[in-house]
Amino acid sequence: MGRLSCVLAAVLTATSLLPAHALAQSAQSGESTAAVLVPAKVIRGKATFYELQSGAGNCSYPSPPAGNLYAALSPREYAAAAACGGYLNVTGPRGTVRVKVVDQCPECPAGHIDLSRTAFSRVANPGNGMVGVTYRPVRNPRVGRPLSFRVKEGSSQWWLALLVIDHGNPLTSVEVKAAGGAWRKLARADYNYWIAESGMGRGPFAVRVTDNRGHRVTAKRVRLAPTVIQRTTTRMY
What we know:
InterPro entries: Expansin/allergen_DPBB_dom, Expansin_CBD, Expansin_CBD_sf, Expansin_CellWall, Expansin_EXLX1-like, RlpA-like_DPBB, RlpA-like_sf. By secondary structure, the protein is mainly β.
């Protein structure tokens, strides 16, 4: 995964957590969407810091977010990639910073958030190594760019893996439709790509994306072009 934590989670002291999760809302369109677990309004825990060694972590984004303000969550909070792409406000002794969830911290218990060094320095002195913090999810964060898509290496008309970029809130559903076909719901892998195991043909495709705040949008003419970042004019909100 390319993570190097500055402080081992094994030394983490017991933390006090508020109720851990709440169910997300259904999509505004009224169509059924899978519920996703999202953090409670405020979580009280601990923070350490690390640096990504390559890429942008378990969430598979092609590069770290602007300003290197990112975070890795415990397996429970990462939730098999359900948290990917969401934003958290983290508050510590020095102040508050907004970070994007891009990674998983396998050794972290729930309530331990692993920040980039840059983000950690906004909330505490890095010399402290580990500090008490609170963090909460950001509703409808300002992303600044429309949706982008990346088709994974090895994708073909017989197997498709699709990454959604710059969506703001965590996603609950991605569906794809080929010309003249029906909508097909993709399965999310724990590395944050959405998979059609038997493929979707040669494309181009329409892609319908739903987030955990009920926003649902459709982007058109996404091509079967592995490794290319395909930018659109479609925004989630």
